[in-house]
Write a structure and sequence with these properties.
73% helix, 90 residues, 0% strand, mainly alpha, 3 helices
Length: 90
């Protein structure tokens, strides 16, 4: 009878441990996904900033990574809003 109680307790502990591991795996997956989304957004915003104001973005890039050389920026950077490209109603 004691062996059945020990086996039952071990099975219960195993089921609880499995449930905890699955919950933690979901949390790690969510955190990993959030991390990569944040990295993507950061890179996208940094590139948009460098297109809008190349002088300040170049200085910010040098301040964040002083060991790397700054990439050369073009002398003429222009921004054309999509509203000016869009066809007007007749």
């Amino acid at each position: 009878m004691v062996s059945w109680l020990v086996s039952g307790a071990a099975l219960l502990v195993a089921v609880v441990a499995l449930a905890m591991v699955r919950r933690l795996a979901r949390q790690v997956s969510t955190l990993t996904s959030s991390y990569w989304e944040l990295r993507y957004d950061y890179t996208r915003l940094r590139s948009r900033l460098s297109r809008l104001d190349p002088e300040d973005a170049g200085e910010a890039a040098q301040a964040s990574s002083p060991d790397t050389a700054a990439a050369p920026t073009s002398a003429t950077v222009s921004y054309v809003p999509l509203s000016t490209i869009r066809k007007k109603d007749k």
